[in-house]
Each structure stands twice: as C-alpha cells, then as structure tokens.
Amino acid sequence: MFLDARLLTIFCVAAEELHFGKAAAALFMSQPALSQQIKRLEEQVGAQLFIRTTRTVRLTPAGSLMYRHAKQIGSETEYMLRRVRQASRGEAGSLSIGLTPTAACTPLADALHRYRCSHPEIELDLHEFNSIEMPGALRLRTIDVALMRPTAVDADIQTEQIYQEAMQVAVRRDHPLERFRSVTLEQITKYPMIGYRKDQSPYFRQLIHSLFLQARLTPKIVQESVVPTLLTLVEAGVGIAIVPCSLGRARDGALRFLPLSKRVACKASIIVAGLYDQPNPAVPDFVRVMHSYRLEGPGM
C-alpha cells in the first residue's frame, strides 16, 4: 500500500502542532478539510492516530509510532529527490573513467583529484586500459569517458587534446650518452634502441617512426615492447628508448632521462574521449574541468 505524500505531510504538521486549527492555517486549508484528510488517513492505515477533546489534541501510541516513521520517510524522500536532481545535472552519481597507464604519471592525476574535490557527490571509478582498448570500452559502457593516447576512432566518439609533453631519452646511468645534457637523433642511431609494439602502442610507434623518417635516419631497433616493460629492458641494458617526460617521475635509480636536442620537435599528447550519445550527465562537466586544466608537460 502506498500512502499519499500529501496525507503524510498533513499528518506530520498536525502531529507537530497538536492543534487542528493551527495546523490547517500552516497548510493554507480549512480546519474541516484537514479533519477530513486525517480521517481518510486513519481509514487507510486502520488505526486511530489522534485523540481529540474539546480542549486538547494528542497522539495515540499508534500515532506516535507513525509520526516517527513519517518523519523518516519525509527526510529520506527529500534526500532522494535532491540526489536525483543532482544526478540529472551531473552533480551526483558515479563516473567511470578509463585511464591509460602512462597518463597516471602526468599532472592529470592532480586534475582528477581537483575534479573529485569540486564534485564530492560523484563517485569516481577508475579503470586502467591500453589506449587501443578504450573505444571498445566506451561502446560497451564499461567506461563513461577515457583519458588516453591518440588512436584511430570512429565518428561516434568525440576527442579533445588536453595534455602535451616532450619526449626524452631513457638510458642507464652507465651508458655513454649519460654524460650529455641533451641528445640528438644522430647520437641515438649509434646505439641499440627499444621500440614500441605496433599492436599495443601504435601511437608511440608512429610518433618515433615519423621522428626518424623526417630526419632521414634509421634507428637500430633491437626489440619492441610496451611501457613499463620497455623501461625494464632499458634498465637491463638491452638498449635505450624514447619515452614521455612524465615517465621520469615514476622511474629512477639505474635510469637517467635526457632531453632531446632543441632541434627535435617531438611531443606526446593525451586526449579525453567519449561517445557523442553519452547518457551520463556527469561527462560534459568532467570534460569541461579537464579542458580548463589543460597542461603542458616539462620540457615544452
């Protein structure tokens, strides 16, 4: 059985006032109309809620019990309505975010923290994906929005660049290049190099390939891998590698990260991506916050 919310409101006001005349005035209705509504409520619940005399009005034990529950229902209903309205405006609910592993090392982690602080009613659910997996995860609704490296997407996905950082050279601290303040592409071609796998890191593979192609140089690729295994191979002495600057924050010890020569223009990007028909109302504001926090990484 569902009770009319209006009836519960009338009952609560009458229970608080314990005076039908004052309760009727507070509700902008006549006293006979209020008495009729109370009688209707008592018939619905099957219990007498008030004891009325010519001088006093008081709650019956059943009325006292109902008042406690009615106040709780009213409070929960108010909370529910507030949360529903917040969710419809993208101010509450949950947001599932796909995050490429290399983005976790960038200042975008701080941007996520700031978003969380400014939207405390939204629960963030982070999922780590390779960038090439993100479009599929968006379509399956596994994630609502993605922070990823650029990759080919279909027309149903919109993207926007939000972060750029320079690329740098990762070498062991005992490598001959370690003594230089910056490194040229010509110097890199003299040593074995770890490249990126085409099936797992097509963005970085194309970025590095284009870099040497434009310079008309050929690097000595001895093995292809993905981050973070790529850095492990560098540390093992298999070869050097060109990686995003942000990775230097996550790996030190045996490795040193050297900037490329100023003559070399090579920047890595991170984009925010989502479906055009995304139903989660929190996504547009998340994208707006990420856009307003657009950053450039060190070495730019």
Structural write-up:
The chain has helices at residues 5-17, 20-26, 31-45, 61-88, 108-118, 134-139, 185-188, 202-214, 229-235, 282-292, and strands at residues 50-52, 57-59, 93-99, 122-128, 145-148, 157-172, 192-196, 220-225, 241-244, 255-259, 267-275, 295-296. It has 300 residues and is α/β, with parallel strands linked by helices. Helix 1 crosses helix 2 (20-26) and helix 2 (20-26) crosses helix 3. The termini are far apart.
State the total count of DSSP E strands: 12
Cα-based radius of gyration, to the nearest Å: 32 Å
- Give the low-confidence spans: none
Structural class: alpha/beta
Mean pLDDT, all residues: 88
Spatial shape = rod-shaped
* End-to-end C-alpha gap: 66 Å
